[in-house]
Amino acid sequence: MAQPKKNPGLAAVLSLIVPGVGQIYNGAFLRGIFWLIITPGFWIGSGGMLGWICHLVAAYTAYDYAERLNRGEIRD
To answer: In a 3-state reduction of DSSP, which class is residue 14?
Structure first.
């Protein structure tokens, strides 16, 4: 049975708003939990300087993961 296609743009936006939610949308729950935990740590630990980097990386990885899921490179 074919897996429904994921929207990479939606995954990226979700992770940009709340890091990890885009990964959860993609079905990568452990990746999502990782970003949900690590991003606040970077915000707090760096006084806000590295939090933006985590947000951007989380959004990019959610987008890339959805693209690879849609191409069939990743099976869950």
So the answer is: helix
